[in-house]
Amino acid sequence: MNIEEQQQTEAVTEQVQDEGAERKSRSKRRVSSKNTRGSSRAKSRRHEWTPQEFVVPEVADRKRFHDFNLPDALMHSIADLGFEYCTPIQAATIEHALAGKDLIAKAQTGTGKTASFLIGIITDLLDFPLEEPRKLKEPRALIIAPTRELALQIAADAEGLVSYSDLSVVSLVGGMDYEKQRKALSKGPVDILVVTPGRLIDFVKSKDVDLYNVEVLVLDEADRMLSMGFIPDVRTIIRHTPRKGPDRQTLLYSATFSEEIMNLARQWTQDPVQIEIESESQVTDNITQTVFFSVSK
What we know:
This protein has helices at 3-16, 26-29, 33-45, 72-81, 88-98, 113-127, 148-161, 178-185, 197-205, 222-227, 231-239, 259-268; strands at residues 103-106, 141-144, 169-172, 192-195, 216-219, 249-254, 273-276. It starts with a helix and ends in a 21-residue tail after the last strand. It has twelve helices and seven strands. The protein is 41% helix and 10% strand. Helix 8 links the parallel strand 3 and strand 4. It has a seven-stranded parallel sheet with strand order 3-4-2-5-6-1-7, with helices on both faces. Helix 5 (88-98) runs parallel beside helix 6 (113-127) and helix 9 (197-205) runs parallel beside helix 11 (231-239). With 297 residues, the chain is α/β, with parallel strands linked by helices. The model is unreliable at 11-24, 30-47 and 281-287 (pLDDT under 50). It has a domain at 88-280: Rossmann fold, CATH 3.40.50.300. The chain is globular, with a radius of gyration of 20 Å.
């Protein structure tokens, strides 16, 4: 099968995937917005800390995290981390993520993109807890990264942002003890699952992970996953998640917007908001070149 045929097949799969099944849409799986936002905020108010203690002055043309009406528990973590003003990618994407829109965002590593999608996910999970009992192996948010190092860093960042909530974070990456990771899944319901593609497929095949109820899917550094040959694995993973649109919010981040990346984005997202944040300096700006002359005797 050539690339064009494979893409057409993937598009059809996305459209007909799980039709007739009893899977509920993201909105129907949650309790009402009015009730859940009230209960989440009430829980946050039980904390002694309040956002008023985290004073960040308003500055023209700069977005503060206060401006997004985030849960108090999340704002407490943000205050501890010293995040005052949004980076450009955060200012441009958080509002859309909170609105439940799909995103295709172009941003380099080190621009704050990890915090941008984590803040959206954590707010969503805190504001909309599920009514029904949850199974241990069913994550609500899935973050896919191309390398073990990046996945572990994302998981660490997530842990820092959920420190004042009951949300759980689990990472599944290759090159580390499988059984230890399986035990981490069994400790309780998983809210945020951060993975590398190959290791997640291992867990899905062994039925240790079920992606049936994933509400938010993040594809981080999609261009690297493409160059490293992970796209077939990512396709396999996505086929196990709810269909795009009302059943699954998809956030795709890439350092480049090649035609191949845009083709993939069109297959995996629905009516996405496209955002491009240019790096303030070129990669070469960070390289110092030194010439050494040797004098032969």
